[in-house]
Design a protein that fits this description.
The protein is 18% helix and 25% strand. It is of the alpha/beta class and 256 residues long. A hairpin with a 5-residue loop joins strand 1 and strand 2 (20-23).
Length: 256
């Protein structure tokens, strides 16, 4: 499992002005936090499942009073984002309270459009257990769509169905880069329907609908070895037409 890596979800996006925006706060965010040079950092959480927030308490800029950190996450009908994250970042799970962080702001995100610096962001609910957002980031004619946990075929008898009713398609449609859930093989998926992730064939069918410039596979099953993932990507590639597939690996860097 050395080539693909074992960190949980975290993707750094740097805009044309050199400002950093991070998608999710899994264990991979620790390496991003070690990179100097950003006075303000924005973190967009797709949802609050443990593998997407477990790196947050260990993100070095959170404890640096010279850094301005903004954390954005899906809105809830019961509690604000700050309160929900405080359950994790407090004793007995963690020794430091959210109130002790020096320069952190929290933002509840509803489906819709907003801006961070030069980046125009579209957020929408996608099919995954709990309140989960997919994001589309646009800047200067370039676009990136991020849907790390997504089960677009759930409840669809013959996937894909109508484009209008396909979860996440409006966000992904003709994006330059689509980062998308690739957790299960076709053989594994029938025993995991409703768990919120895609099979290899369903991902290929969704990508064919969305027609991105590049498809980056993401959120691999942590039990899959490099050899298993190579085989899965070979199957996926054989089902794609006119779409460049980029296997998602730790440290992968792309220019958009």
């Amino acid at each position: 499992m050395m080539r693909f890596g074992g960190d949980t979800s975290a993707v750094e996006v740097v805009d044309s002005m050199g400002r950093a925006l991070i998608l999710d706060a899994g264990s991979g965010i620790r390496a991003i936090g070690a990179m100097p040079g950003h006075d303000r950092v924005d973190i967009l959480l797709s949802h609050l499942h443990m593998d997407h927030v477990q790196g947050l308490p260990f993100f070095a800029p959170l404890l640096d009073p010279g850094k301005e950190v903004h954390i954005w996450g899906p809105i809830s009908t019961t509690e604000r984002l700050r309160q929900r994250l405080s359950r994790y970042m407090s004793p007995p799970l963690f020794p430091i309270y959210v109130r002790d962080l020096p320069n952190v702001s929290f933002h509840d995100v509803a489906p819709g459009e907003f801006e961070i610096g030069n980046i125009q962001i579209f957020a929408d609910l996608i099919c995954h257990p709990g309140s989960t957002l997919g994001y589309r980031l646009n800047e200067a004619g370039s676009s990136l769509t991020y849907m790390p946990d997504h089960e677009p075929a759930l409840g669809v008898e013959n996937f894909p169905g109508e484009r209008t009713w396909t979860s996440g398609l409006a966000l992904a449609d003709r994006s330059d880069v689509l980062i998308h859930d690739a957790q299960y093989t076709d053989e594994e998926y029938p025993g995991r329907v409703g768990w919120g992730h895609s099979s290899t064939t369903d991902l290929a069918r969704f990508a064919e609908l969305a027609a991105p410039g590049k498809l980056v596979t993401f959120h691999h099953d942590p039990a899959h070895t490099d050899a298993m993932l190579d085989d899965q990507h070979e199957r996926l590639g054989s089902n794609l037409t006119g779409i460049e597939m980029v296997p998602g690996t730790v440290g992968l860097a792309l220019d958009i």
